Amino acid sequence: MKSRTFRRTFALFAEKQISDAPKIALLLLALALPAVAEKPTIELMPFTSAFVPAAAACGFDVLATPQPGRPNKERVIQFNNAAIIAGPLFVTLKNLSTGKTINVNISGPSRIIFSGTTTTVVSTGPSIQPFPASVLTAAGLPPLPLIHGQIVFTVDDQGNVTSVQRVTGTVQDVCQLLQ
C-alpha cells in the first residue's frame, strides 16, 4: 500500500513540476528580456588627430591625422557591460623631424568588456597601440606597434594599460617605418 501511495504522490509531484516548468520558464524569460532588449547607445567617434611625443615611443615626434579622401567613420556601440569600437579609420602617420609619412588602415574593430575595476580590450584587425614602455617591453612589442591580428590587454579603473595578455598576427614597428 505504501508503494502505491508513494507512486501516486510522486506522479502528482512530477505532473505539477512539469506543468509549472513552462510557467517558470516564461517568468524567467519575461524578467530577462528587458535587460536583453535594451538598445545600445551608438555614437560616432570621428578621429581628429593624435600626437605621440618623442620620449613616449620613437625618439622623434609622431603625428597621426585622418587620411584625406578616406573613410573616418568609427563609432562606439555601448552596451550595459561592454562596448564595440568599429568602422573604417585610415590615418597618415608623420615623422615630425623628417617629414616622412605613411598611410595605414587602423579600422579594428575592438571589443571592450567592463568588469569591476578592470576592463579587458580585445582588438582585432589592424590597430596601433601606444602603450606605456613598460607594458610594451613586457609583451615583447616595439615602442609603437602596428598590429594586424589580435591583441588582448587589460586597463585599470584609472584608464592605464596594465598588461598585455596575448598578441597574435603580425606586428610592425611604426618607428622603423617612419625612419
Describe the fold and architecture.
By secondary structure, the chain is α+β, with helices and mostly antiparallel strands. It is 26% helix and 41% strand. It contains three helices and eleven strands; from the N terminus they run αβββββββββαββα. It has helices at 2-37, 133-139, 174-177; strands at 41-44, 50-52, 62-66, 75-78, 82-86, 90-95, 101-105, 110-115, 118-128, 145-155, 161-173. The strands form two sheets. A seven-stranded antiparallel beta sheet has the order 1-4-5-8-9-10-11. A four-stranded antiparallel beta sheet has the order 2-3-6-7, with no helix packed on it. It starts with a helix and ends with a helix. The model is unreliable at 1-30 (pLDDT under 50).
Rg from Cα: 26 Å
Strand content: 35-45%
- What is the terminal separation in angstroms? 94 Å
Structural class: alpha+beta
**Continuous helix count:** 3
Secondary-structure element order, N to C: HEEEEEEEEEHEEH
Helix content: 25-40%
**Biggest sheet statistics:** 7 strands, antiparallel
Summarize it.
The chain has 179 residues and is of the alpha+beta class. It contains 3 helices and 11 strands; from the N terminus they run H-E-E-E-E-E-E-E-E-E-H-E-E-H.
Features of the shown structure:
179 residues; 3 helices; 11 strands; globular; disordered N terminus
What order do the helices and strands come in, and which of them pair?
Layout: H1 2-37, E1 41-44, E2 50-52, E3 62-66, E4 75-78, E5 82-86, E6 90-95, E7 101-105, E8 110-115, E9 118-128, H2 133-139, E10 145-155, E11 161-173, H3 174-177
Antiparallel strand pairs: 1-4, 2-3, 3-6, 4-5, 5-8, 6-7, 8-9, 9-10, 10-11
